[in-house]
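Hey all, quick one. A colleague (J.T.) asked me to put the flavin mononucleotide job into the tracker so the inputs and the structure tokens live in one place instead of scattered across chat threads. No bug as far as I know, just bookkeeping. Sequence used:
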Amino acid sequence: MDLEKQIYVRKSCRNYMDEEFDLKIIDEFMVNVKTLNDNIKYYYKILKRDEVNLRTRWSAPYYLALFSQIKDNYKENIGFVFQQLSLYLQSLGIGSCWVGMGSIKEKNSEFVILISFGKSDKISRDISKFKRKSLEDISDYADEKLKPAQLAPSAINSQPWYFKHSDEGFDVYQVQQNIIKRQILKKWNPIDVGISLAHLYVANEETFEFYIKKDFEKIKGHTYIGSIKI
Ligand SMILES: Cc1cc2nc3c(=O)[nH]c(=O)nc-3n(C[C@H](O)[C@H](O)[C@H](O)COP(=O)(O)O)c2cc1C
């Protein structure tokens, strides 16, 4: 199971086949998933297309509905946990896509976001096809170690992550959006940052640690999220 390899070929899948497969693989994978913060309870449900409301022009045979207790960093945690699953599904030929433009029909105040998934033959691409900010733009100085984070998916490809080098790894920030973009993205950008941290974890499984500093450097136009050792 080489999840790191998937980072360099993955893409959001919006084109699915109506083929069934054994959904048990999801529960099995989730038993060993890593969290950013063990103290935040979360869970998921697997739903069929007719159990969700969509504002996308495409749809998938299955949707994961993600739920969480509302605590500090709960959205980062959801992004972090379920991006690992997305990379795992990709390694099995199952495509997925985070879906901000959708909700569940059931009323549940712990609902966070959907992920569509299903069998697909359109799930990979060449590295040259990724549209991303440069490594210089996402850090105080360009560093190849950040490549996995650079390639992470994000809402409307907003890529709201910024990394500042520290003695042990990086301090992680979320870029504050301008007033127009903020309306749409404030809901999703913390999830995006968690997704980028999942990519750094998968690429540095042995050493990765997430923690929160009490005295971090303030950077104008950025919100401090936490720090990582890698
Ligand atoms: C939190 C989040 C929400 C997203 N919501 C949608 C969505 O509602 N509809 C959609 O087509 N894509 C959605 N996406 C996929 C992004 O558009 C996609 O990740 C981005 O454009 C980069 O492309 P890539 O994932 O193929 O690398 C979402 C991604 C994230 C991380």
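Adding what we noticed when we looked at it: The chain has two domains: 3-119, 131-229. The chain has six helices and ten strands.
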